[in-house]
Amino acid sequence: MPRPDAPRVAVFRRKILPWSETFIASQTMALEAYAPVYVGYELDARGAKYVEGRERVLLADHSAFPPLGKLQVKYLARTPARWQRAIAATKPTLVHAFFGSSAIPAHSIARALGVPLVVTYLGMDITVTPRTAAEVARRRRAFAAADLVLCVSDFLGEKLREAGCPPEKVRTLYTGVDTTKFVPAPPEAGAGASGAGAAPAKPQVLFVGRLAAKKGVIHLIRAMPEVRRAVPEAELVIAGDGELRAELEAAAKALDLPVRFLGVQTPAQVNELMRRATVLCGPSVVDARGNAEGLPFTFLEAQACGLPVVVSTSGGTAEGAVDGKTGFLFAPGDEQALARHLITILKDPALRQRMSLAAREHMVQNFDLAKQTRVLESLYDGVRKRQM
Question: What is the pTM of this model?
Fold first, then answer.
């Protein structure tokens, strides 16, 4: 926990917080030299509990008609007076907005307070191809507004520079995973990828995430019949929800494939699923609009649990795994390679054991939350000094 006199950082997200954005909570709740204050338009009940107990300042609590206030921020770049006073009362020393789409409204807050703005880009906010000149102009306004632009993978950093973001503003900061919370299951738990390398009662392929086109879950479903021919007892577990759920359930039914669709899971439930699974699969692709992964947080959490991963090289995903060591990489959409890699891991306990240990070590050494938080706080220090 931050000390009582720690400088404040206003963490801006339009809703506090969508259920799939545990990475925002994880990163900001880990701050020690700074204290987060969550600023947004309204609560999202599904993820509000992620930041329970921390200070928040919502437009909905400081406006007689919040929709009008949102329009002021979006189109006039003006922070409603009552909300601005409430934010100012927390005395933030900087504003940190998550997603490029939040940069312009966050800038109106930062400008009103006279503090610097940090913006983190996470994927679709920079990979999706703009459809109009207005969208291109808005993207460039967002670049100009930010004093520091963070991205969760080098892949996204290159996309930012290609889109016109000044290179001197761009810095890659991998999202840290809490390696004290996401840990391998003890040997007696019988987890398939635990440090003990013990096999579960039933080999289990796990997917965690939104059921959206770029997640590529349809390729995993199509690969599973081949997997089950080689490993008949293997089961597929899908944790998450989204617009494609009904379509994916229908695809599984058409293939006569038993799949457990669990829906949205809490972080604690995801942790437990990862500790019980044999392998985590991330079959991401680039969707029709160019939307690509930055670096999915669940891939990191899984490896911290000692769970081998089979993930595609779409977007920045390959930056989080070591091919042949912590799991396997494959070309997006290559269902044969996906099936082959899953079969290899499911059938080879010794390989799972080696990958489990390597995955855990990779996270501890390169993606540990405490280490990454110290880097983030040093970046906060630097951007504040530059403005003085």
Answer: 0.91
Could you give the percent of the chain with pLDDT greater than 70? 96
Which helix (DSSP H) or strand (DSSP E) does residue 89 occupy? Answer: helix 81-89
SS3 83: helix
- Can you read off the two tokens belonging to residue 202? 């039933």
The domains of the chain are located at 8-176+368-387, 187-366
Q: How far is CA 159 from CA 171, 206, 316, in A?
A: 12, 30, 11
Say if domain 187-366 classifies as CATH 3.30.300.30.
no
Element (H, E) at 357: helix 349-366
pLDDT band, residue 188 (cuts 50/70/90): low
* Residue 19: per-residue pLDDT: 86
Alpha-carbon torsion angle 326, 200, 252, 256, nearest 10 = 130
Q: Closest Cα partner for 342 from 224, 184, 214?
A: 224
Q: Enter the tokens of residue 216.
A: 């590529």
If one counts every other C-beta atom within 10 angstroms of the C-beta of residue 283, the result is: 25
DSSP per position, 96-108? EEESGGGHHHHHH
Give domain 8-176+368-387's CATH number out of 3.30.70.20, 3.40.50.2000, 3.40.710.10, 1.10.260.40.
Answer: 3.40.50.2000
DSSP 8-state code for residue 181 = T
Question: What are the tokens at 382?
Answer: 């630097």
pLDDT tens across 276-326, in order? Answer: 999 999 999 999 889 999 999 999 999 999 999 999 999 999 999 999 999
256-288 tens-digit pLDDT? 999 999 999 999 999 999 999 999 999 999 998
Give residue 286's pLDDT: 94
**Residue 214 tokens, joined:** 């770029």
Residue-wise burial string across 78-102, b where 16 or more C-beta atoms lie within 10 A, e elsewhere: bbbeebbebbbebebbbbbbbbbbb
How far apart are alpha carbons 43 and 14 in whole angstroms? 9
157-162: which pairs have CB atoms within 8 A and are 24 or more residues apart?
159/126, 159/127, 160/121, 160/126
